[in-house]
Amino acid sequence: MTVLGTREGRSLVFTRTYAAPLDDVWAACTEPARLERWIGTWAGDPAAGEVRFRMTAEGDDVPEEVYDVELCEPPRRFVLRSREAAPFSEDGSGPRVHWRHTLELDESDGLTTLRFTQAVPEGPTGAAMVASVGPGWDYYLDRLTADLGGADVAGIDFEPYLERSEHYRALFG
């Protein structure tokens, strides 16, 4: 497994490699029942261009968000963008941003490489954003890794990930 949190343009990029077939990793990331095991669930019709996503690992009161499906090329790539801009800062106030996520998968020699990208705005908002979402995506991708490996995702504690916040902020500072 490789974890890479880095600056690429104005995006936060994570790369992980799994000893799993491409179709299995795609299913874990796109099928509601599989997705719910490590991050959340979605409803809707991606072919209609939108899905409603709700994170389930953060409690029962997390609101559902509508995402526009900008691109879906099974089983290799999809791009989603939150329909509504949300205020973002460490205290929940501040400029409004859209969440834009890209998932790309590639298989070679029996290994599937996942590349997850989150677009990040310029300036202090981007630095504050990665300080929060960097540890969060690290955590969720570790939960995906556990799920694909047949391990208990509930055994992964979020608290140690918070210590990585300044690492991510420094990448975009």
From TrEMBL:
Residues covered by the Activator of Hsp90 ATPase homologue 1/2-like C-terminal domain: 20-146
Gene3D superfamilies reported in the protein's UniProt record: 3.30.530.20
Origin superkingdom: Bacteria
One Pfam entry name: AHSA1
Family named by the database record: Belongs to the AHA1 family.
Name of protein: SRPBCC domain-containing protein
Lineage: Bacteria, Bacillati, Actinomycetota, Actinomycetes, Propionibacteriales
